[in-house]
Specification:
Layout (H helix, E strand, L loop, with lengths): L1 H12 L1 H27 L6 H25 L9 H9 L1 H7 L1 E3 L2 E3 L1 H18 L3 H29 E9 L4 H11 L3 E9 L5 E9 L6 H9 L4 E6 L1
Helix pairs in contact: 2-3, 2-6, 2-7, 3-4, 3-6, 5-6, 6-7
Length: 234
């Protein structure tokens, strides 16, 4: 009975802190879930659960920092921002795991950045800076959804994709890029798509056709390369 009474008095005296802790962790869960849902929707390597865990974990770090500060600041010199700083620098290992190199293309950079941003949202929520955490979540979500769609519409009006089936040779990508650029066409992106047959690779060039170079002239120039087997536009 004595133990129960002591526990009851302890939790009642700490009730405000624990209520604040629960609310901060729940808010971090919701805000991280908003960003994670968007990443899950577009089938990114780090989705809903990963973003929630990162955000809630970051919030818990800041709640713990605050707890340590109030509990031990009268006895030792405590910096409440130290643990949060370690989250910001340490989240890089998780972001690096979402970056995937496929052939000559790199994917996952946006997801890595969103994980880092979500950790910062969690830090803000964990320290009780709700307005900053909410505003940052809205901005991040708009960047991932609205700006992506707007950017896609803007680039699709001037861009075209050229698929080139060629033999796998050292320096082949650089040679084909040089042929395309000599005709005044700007290369926006180069991807290795697949290898249908042994000794052959399929390259996808995303081109800026604002220079108004005739596509027929471009295809003819690429086909003149001795290792190119097939070229088509999409």
């Amino acid at each position: 009975m004595w133990i129960l009474n002591n526990l009851s008095s302890y939790f009642s005296s700490q009730g405000e802190f624990y209520l604040s802790m629960i609310s901060r962790l729940i808010i971090a869960c919701v805000l991280g879930g908003i960003i994670g849902f968007e990443r899950e929707h577009v089938h990114r390597p780090a989705g809903l659960r990963t973003h929630i865990l990162v955000c809630v974990g970051s919030a818990l770090v800041m709640v713990t920092s605050e707890f340590i500060y109030y509990r031990y600041s009268s006895h030792v010199n405590v910096d409440p921002a130290r643990l949060g700083a370690q989250v910001i620098s340490g989240i890089g290992f998780l972001g690096a795991g979402t970056i995937i190199k496929e052939g000559i293309s790199v994917k996952g950079l946006t997801t890595a950045a969103s994980l880092w941003a979500v950790s910062c949202v969690g830090i803000a929520a964990g320290i009780g800076f709700y307005s900053g955490a909410l505003l940052a979540t809205v901005i991040i979500f708009l960047i991932l959804v609205v700006i992506k769609k707007t950017q896609g519409r803007m680039t699709s009006q001037k861009s075209t994709r050229l698929f080139i089936h060629t033999q796998i040779k050292r320096g082949e990508v650089n040679e084909l890029s040089r042929i395309i650029q000599e005709l005044g066409v700007k290369i926006k992106k180069t991807d290795f798509v697949s290898s249908e047959r042994d000794g052959e690779m399929v390259l996808r060039f995303t081109l800026d056709m604002s220079a108004q170079t005739p596509m027929a002239e471009l295809i003819e120039a690429v086909l003149c390369h001795e290792h190119v087997r097939r070229v088509y536009e999409e």
